[in-house]
Protein 1
Amino acid sequence: MPNQFPENFLWGGAVAANQVEGAYCEDGKGLSTADVVKYVPPGQRKALEHALSISRAELAAAISDTQEENYPKRRGIDFYHRYKEDIKLFAEMGFKVFRMSISWPRIFPNGDENEPNEAGLRFYDDVFDELNRYGIEPLVTLSHYEMPVELVTRYNGWESRELVGLFVRYADTVFLRYKNKVKYWLTFNEINAVIRFPFLGGGVLTEGKENEKQAAFQALHHQFIASALSIKRAREINPEFQVGCMLARKLIYPYSCHPGDVLKAQGENQMAQFCSDVQVRGYYPSYIKRHLADYEVSIEMEPGDEAVLKENLVDFLSFSYYMSSTVSTDESITERTEGNLSSGLVNPFLKTSDWGWQIDPTGLRVVLKEMHDRYQIPLFVVENGLGAADVIEADGTIKDDYRIEYLAQHIEQMAEAIADGVELLGYTSWGCIDLISASTSEMRKRYGYIYVDQDDEGNGSLERIRKKSFYWYKKVIASRGTDLTNH
C-alpha cells in the first residue's frame, strides 16, 4: 500500500439534516420537501420513481397529513435531541470532520420571511459548539435535498428565478451567524440530481409540463446562479471560508469495446461532470449545447449571469461515489443494476450489494484521477458507503464485515490516487450513523458505524449501538489509513 494519508487529511462521516434530525415541526421549523415523501417498501422501484416526482394533489395531501401515512424523514433518528450523544460517539472514533447540513426551513420556515427563526439558528450554534468541544471540523451543506415546501406551492421550487434571492439571503444569514464556527461549506448536495429528479433536487413539480427537461435545466441554472452568488457573499463575510460544489458521481463503463458503447459511455460521463464543469470552470461547456438542443431545452439567462458564474468559482470539488455501471447500444443486453438514484447495465466483473448496487473500488480511483486531470483543484470524497441489512447477534454485537471490506477497498484506492498525485482533502463516509434512506425513506438499508434501534415503521428504542466497523474505523483514523486490517 502507498504511503499514509497526509497528516491534515480530514477523516470523518456524513449525514443530512432531513435524514437524521426529526423534530419536523418543533421550535418553529417549517415543513420541508423531504417531509412530504412517503416510505417506499423494498423492491418497489416504480413506487420510488413516484415518490421522487410527487403530484400537486399528493403534495397537498401530504402537507395536511399529520399522522395517517408513514413519512419517515419527519422523525429521522432524533438527532435533534440526541446530537450530543451522537457527536460524542463520532469523537470516540476520532473524527476530524463531520459533514452535516442545515435545514433551510429551520432557519426560514416558509423560505421568504423577513427575519430568520432564532430557535433554528440556536440549534446549529449548539451543534457547532459541541463539535468544537471535540475538535471536529464541521463541513456544512446549505441545501441537501430539502427546502421549504411553501416555496414549491408558491413558486414551483427552483424553476422560478425568485428562489435565487431567497436562497442567497438564507446563505448570507448562516454565513454571518457561523462565520467563526464553520470553515468548510457546500452549496447544493448532488446538484446534478435535479436533472433526473426535479422534485427531489429542486422542488419542481413536473405534472402537466410538456417538457420536463426544460423545467429541470432551468431550475439547475437558477441553482448555479444562487450557488455562485452565495460564494461571492461568503468571501465577503470571511475570506477564510472554503466553499465547494458537490455532485453525484457514478462511473460509466462501455459494456464492450464496440465503438458505439465507448461513445455512449463517454457521453454519460461528460453529463456526470457537466455541473462541475460549470462550477469549477465558470461556464457552460460546449458539449451541453447539443444535449439541450436534442431535448428542445432553452435556458433563460438574465444579463450578467455568465459573469456571475465566471467570477465566483468553487474552492474545491466534492462528490459522492458508491458504484459504477455500464451502457451499451445493443438493445438485447437488458440485465440492469440499481444505484444512487440511477440504474444501468450490469458489469459482469463486479459484485453486487443487497440493494443491487455494484461494488467498484477501482472506479473511485479512476474518478479521482479523471477529475484531478480535468480540474486541478482539491477534491473531497464526501459520500461513500455500503447500505446493508445489519443483524444484531445473540450477544448484542453487529458483525458488519461486509461493510469493513467495502470501505477498506475504497480507502485503499484513495491512497493509490493520492500516490498518483491527486490532491484529496478528506473522506466522509456516508451515513456514519444509521439514518433514513434519501430515496426510499427506509431504515433497514443501514450505512452507519453506529446502529440505531428503529425500523421502517418508526418502532424501536433509538438506542445507539457500536458496530464492528465502529472500532475498525477508529483504528483506520488513528493509523492515518495505513491499518485497514479487519481484526
Protein 2
Amino acid sequence: MSAVLRAQALGRKYKQRWALQNCDLDVPTGRVVGLVGPNGAGKSTLLNLASGMLTPTAGTIEVCGGGPSAGPAQLAKVGFVAQDTPTYAGLSVADHLGLGARLNPGWDDALARDRIRRLGLDPAQKAGKLSGGQRAQLALTLGIAKRPELLILDEPVAALDPLARREFMRDLMEAVADQQLSVVLSSHLVSDVERSCDYVIVLVDSRVQVAGDIDDLRATHHRLTGPRRDPATLPAGQYVISASHTDRQTTLLVRTDTPVHDPSWTVTPLSLEDIVLAYMTRPADAVRDSRPVLEVLR
C-alpha cells in the first residue's frame, strides 16, 4: 500500500503532557480518508504535525515522500484547513487570494477566482463580515487552489449549520474529483465521514484501533445475538470487539472475514457509526488482533 502519510512512534509533548505518543500510522495515497476518534485522541496534534505546523518530540512523520517542513517545495505539496477555518478578519476575499498567490508557487488563480464567483462571494467583502459557512468555503478555496498533493482538513465543518456543512462537503468532493487529491478529513461527525470518505481510521489514545475501506469494514463487522455464552468459545477468526450479557443473552460485535454459520446466533449488519463507537469505547487494555491493524481489511 502506497502511503501519502506515514508515522512511526510519533509523539508530541507539551511541557509534561503528551498530546500524541507512540503513534504508528499509514494513510493510503489517492483516498479520501476519515480520521475519527474521541476528544483527546491526538487527531489535531497529528494533523498539525503532518502540515508542518508542529515538530515531533519523538518518532518520525513523512508526508508526500518527505518531512512536513523540509522546505518550500515540500510545503507546497500539502494544503491545510485548520479546525477554526482561519481567515484574516481585516482582509478582503480578494486580499486572501492575493496572499495565496504570493505564498504558493503552484497557485491556480483561475480556479480560486472561479470558486469565489460560483460561491457568490464578493471579492471586496472583509472576511470578518462573512458567515461561518462562507469563511469555511474561503479557507477551502485557499487550500485547494495551491494545488496540493494532500489536502488536510481538521474538523472543518464542526461549527457550521447542517446546510452550510452539506454545501462544504459537496464542494470538497467536487474538488477531490477534479484534482484527484489525497484527503485526510478529521471529524467527529461519522455521518459526514460515511457520506464523503472511502477509507476510515479510528484513533484512540494515540493508537490506531482499526483502519480500512469503509465498505470492507461494514462487510466484515457484525452484531451477534444469542443465548448467553463465553466469547472465548468463538471459532478462530472471529474477533470480539465488544460484548454485553444479560442473564440469558449475549450480544457481541465481531469482526470476521468469513460468514458466521452458527445457527444459534442472530446476525445483523452494523452501520459505520456502530463500528466506530465500538472501537472508541473498547477498554484501554483490550487485547488487539495479532495481525497488523492496517492489514486487517483488504
Protein 3
Amino acid sequence: MGRRKVIETYYSDINNLSDILTKLVSSYRLLIGGADELNKIALSKKNDVKGALKRADKLGDIIDELIKTLEQTSGDYQQYCELKSEIIRGRMDMKFILNEIDEELLFKE
C-alpha cells in the first residue's frame, strides 16, 4: 500500500470514529432522557430508573474511551498536516499561490 493510501485510510478512520462518536452521544442523550421520563412516571420502580442510568453510564464510559482514541489519532494526523504544510511552503513560491487565489476570486465576480 502506498504512503498516500495509508494517510487517506488513516484520515478515513478518524472520520469513522467521529461518526461513531456522534451516534453514541445521541444514544447517550436518549438514554438519559428515557431515564428522566421513567423517573417521572409514578408507577416506575427505583430499580428500573437505576438500571436505565447504569446503561447510560456504561455508554458514557465507551464514549470517554472513544474520545481518548480520537484525541490521540487526530493529534498524529494534525502533526502530519503541519509537516506537509511546511514542506509545501518550502518548495512553492507563495506569489504563484496568491496569484491563483486572486484569479479565482476575480473569475467568480
